[in-house]
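Need a sequence for this fold. Nothing fancy.
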C-alpha cells in the first residue's frame, strides 16, 4: 500500500457484509452466501479539510451504495472476478488515487474461517 502523503486521506470501509451468488458448485450457484468486503481508498483531501463540505470530499457512502447494488444484483463464479469488479467500481471515481479491495468468503474451506482475495489499483 502506498505511503500516506501529506494532503491525502485514507478511507477504510471495514467488514461490509453482503449476500450474493458466489462459487462454482451447484449449492453455491443456487444459494446466496455471505461475503465480507474491506476497502482502502486514498484520495487528495486538502479541499475537504479546508472547506468542510461534502462537495469537496470523496463520498464513501455513494461508493458503498454502488458496491452493494452491484454485488447483490449479480452472480460470480470466482472471488477474483468479484474483487476486480468492485475495484473497478471504486477506481471509476476521479478523486481516487489508490484503492485496495479484499473480499472474504466465510467458510469457503473446511477448517478455515474464510478465504479472501485482495486486489489493488492506482491512478
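Here you go.
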Amino acid at each position: 500500500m502506498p505511503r500516506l502523503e501529506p494532503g491525502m486521506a485514507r478511507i477504510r470501509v471495514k467488514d461490509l457484509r453482503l449476500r450474493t451468488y458466489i462459487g462454482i458448485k451447484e449449492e453455491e450457484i443456487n444459494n446466496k452466501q455471505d461475503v465480507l468486503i474491506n476497502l482502502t481508498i486514498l484520495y487528495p483531501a486538502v479541499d475537504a479539510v479546508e472547506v468542510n463540505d461534502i462537495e469537496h470530499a470523496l463520498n464513501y457512502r455513494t461508493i458503498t451504495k454502488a458496491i452493494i447494488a452491484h454485488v447483490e444484483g449479480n452472480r460470480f463464479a470466482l472471488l477474483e472476478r468479484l474483487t476486480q469488479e468492485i475495484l473497478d467500481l471504486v477506481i471509476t471515481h476521479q478523486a481516487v488515487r489508490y484503492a485496495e479491495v479484499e473480499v472474504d468468503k466465510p467458510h469457503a474451506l473446511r477448517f478455515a474461517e474464510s478465504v479472501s482475495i485482495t486486489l489493488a489499483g492506482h491512478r
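For context: The first strand starts at residue 8 and ends at 22.
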